[in-house]
Write a structure and sequence with these properties.
- The protein has six helices and no strands.
- The chain is mostly helical.
- The longest helix has 33 residues, at 3-35.
- It is flat and about 70 Å long.
- The N and C termini lie far apart (46 Å).
Length: 150
């Protein structure tokens, strides 16, 4: 076998392992979460949001593997523009979802009815500021990219 062919073959195997293993880890986490949960815990909003987050996190992993793997292994036959747009959307927006779920978890642990107001402010101030900062950064990003678009 030619040395270049050996190199490409070794690169292909390494790339597939690099792109597939994180997705498999999240899939395993989802299976473990579903297997070891009780019927009562599955009914809770926090559990359902955790499952949603894992599924949303699987999507960019798959899309990144598809776009990056295709670009490296078959550079003259790229994926469609819509796949790149979808990968970008799944890279930009899920952190907003994750922040919302974090706030929902905090509300589950510290109900408003029994937690003092000052404690609620101390608990929610930082996550709320982070969420606001993410929204501002996304808005600024889209404003700048719109100014520089063709």
């Amino acid at each position: 076998m030619h040395s270049l062919t050996k190199y490409v073959h070794a690169l292909t195997i390494s790339l597939l392992a690099l792109l597939v293993l994180p997705v498999c880890s999240l899939f395993t986490l989802l299976i473990v979460l579903l297997r070891f949960s009780t019927k009562e815990s599955r009914r809770r909003l926090v559990f359902q949001l955790n499952v949603l987050v894992i599924c949303v996190a699987l999507t960019p992993g798959i899309l990144t593997g598809l776009t990056s793997g295709k670009a490296i292994l078959d550079p003259f036959n790229q994926v469609s523009k819509s796949v790149y747009i979808t990968a970008t959307v799944f890279a930009l927006y899920p952190p907003l979802l994750y922040d919302s779920i974090l706030l929902a978890r905090f509300f589950a642990l510290h109900p408003m009815a029994i937690t003092p107001s000052l404690t609620l402010v101390k608990i929610f101030a930082f996550p709320f500021c982070i969420k606001c900062a993410r929204v501002v950064v996304l808005a600024r990003f889209f404003d700048v990219t719109q100014d520089h678009s063709w």
